[in-house]
Write a structure and sequence with these properties.
The protein has 397 residues and is α+β, with helices and mostly antiparallel strands. It is 50% helix and 15% strand.
């Protein structure tokens, strides 16, 4: 693995950082959070038209840039650094790969060019409390996590005209504003239950959506009710849906690990800047040894998480899976860096005017959505069979 960035990768990162610094400052960020969608459509258009970010990891055949997930992960490190609120995670990281993997040729031709251009946004309608399970990040995803039409789940029913969906998903990323919903639903009743994915327009008859109040306002979520909604099956009925979700989950974990590292790194940068200016007893508090030691520990943790995230991004592009463990390390680093930012900023860090609390809320929100860290690590260890007997004899002393 070569850890140095190619000129193209470095160019994408620099261009994205320049764009976000000019279009996603503290004031623009707060203004975007107050909109009904929770993000700035003008920023999303700029990301799509100037950088092609929504289609960065989609094939050129469908209007994408044709890069690998590695480039997408590196780009998301910059969006995480700025806490940029956008449909990127829901559309590009979760929904688009599933359509590319499972969709029929006609569905890909119809949807992927619009997703790549940013004209269409999409959301994976899986209840937030089971998203990590559905993506096989905290356990096997072959169970009944999709529910059965009761609260917190969606049921699919075949009719003479196609498929009908009913049920609800309470915590769907961008579910309140996405133009297309990729809905995970249970079918087959109790005798042959299985999970399938369906395509539902966001404005379809019978779809009722509302934005939820969340810990992390920069990661907006919606509640989606489906009341006997007409839906199209994504791909074929015999498709390996759980396998596609697991593969998408590993790639998403690698991307989110880089995003979390970006946020953790920026929180640490802001803290170092603050302790260099804040004076106590006639000297900057950053000159005290205790402060230096604590921030040095945070720096080491962030750098270790960055190395793990970069490896996971590289591995995802080469058919290997390391996303879950990298995400666990990145989330821990993000939590540590943001908590120390609050601590060293003192009362200032708790105020709405300062963005330190936004990084802390991002760390908490990410763990609620895709964690917690100990479950990510436990599943990664179980998948690697780390603690199973390897045939060696036990030695007692």
């Amino acid at each position: 693995m070569d850890t140095s960035l190619t000129p193209e990768q470095d160019g994408v990162r620099r261009a994205l950082r320049d764009l976000l610094e000019s279009r996603c400052g503290p004031h623009e960020l707060r203004a975007a959070l107050d909109t009904p969608s929770g993000h700035d459509p003008a920023l999303w258009t700029a990301l799509a038209e100037r950088l092609g970010l929504p289609g960065l990891a989609l094939p050129e055949t469908y209007g994408g840039v044709g890069c690998s997930v590695t480039e997408l992960a590196l780009a998301c490190e910059e969006t995480g650094r700025a806490l940029a609120p956008s449909p990127l995670l829901a559309t590009t990281v979760l929904a688009a790969p599933l359509i590319a993997a499972l969709g029929t040729p006609a569905q890909r031709e119809e949807l992927l060019p619009r997703l790549a251009s940013g004209a269409l946004t999409a959301a994976l309608a899986v209840d937030g409390t089971v998203l990590a399970t559905a993506l096989a990040l905290t356990g096997g995803n072959g169970g009944d996590w999709a529910g059965g039409g009761r609260a917190g789940g969606v049921q699919a029913r075949r009719t003479t005209d196609g498929w009908r969906l009913y049920g609800q998903a309470d915590q769907v990323l961008d579910g309140h504003s996405a133009g297309l919903l990729v809905v995970a639903a249970r079918t087959g009743g109790y005798t042959r239950p299985r999970t399938l994915l369906f395509l539902v327009p966001g404005d379809a008859a019978g779809v009722v959506r509302a934005r939820r109040t969340t810990v992390d306002a920069t990661r907006p979520q919606g509640r989606v009710h489906l009341r006997d909604v007409d839906a199209r099956l994504l791909g074929e009925e015999e498709a390996d849906v759980t396998g596609a979700l697991a593969e998408t989950g590993d790639r998403a974990a690698a991307v989110l690990a880089c995003e979390a590292v970006g946020a953790a790194g920026r929180a640490l940068e802001r803290t170092v800047e603050h302790v260099g200016r804040r004076e106590q007893f006639g000297r900057p508090i950053g000159s005290f040894q205790a402060v230096k030691h604590r921030l040095a520990d945070v720096y080491v943790e962030v750098q270790a998480a960055r190395s793990a995230a970069y490896y996971a991004a590289w591995a995802a592009a080469h058919g290997e899976r390391a996303g879950g463990l990298a995400l666990a390390q990145a989330l821990r680093a993000q939590r540590t860096a943001s908590a120390e930012a609050i601590q060293f900023h003192g009362g200032l860090g708790f105020t709405w005017e300062h963005e330190a609390h936004l990084y802390f809320k991002r760390a908490a929100g990410d763990e609620l959505l895709l964690g917690p860290v100990h479950r990510l690590r436990a599943h990664a260890a179980g998948t690697a069979r780390l603690f199973e007997a390897s045939g060696t004899r036990e030695v007692r002393v």
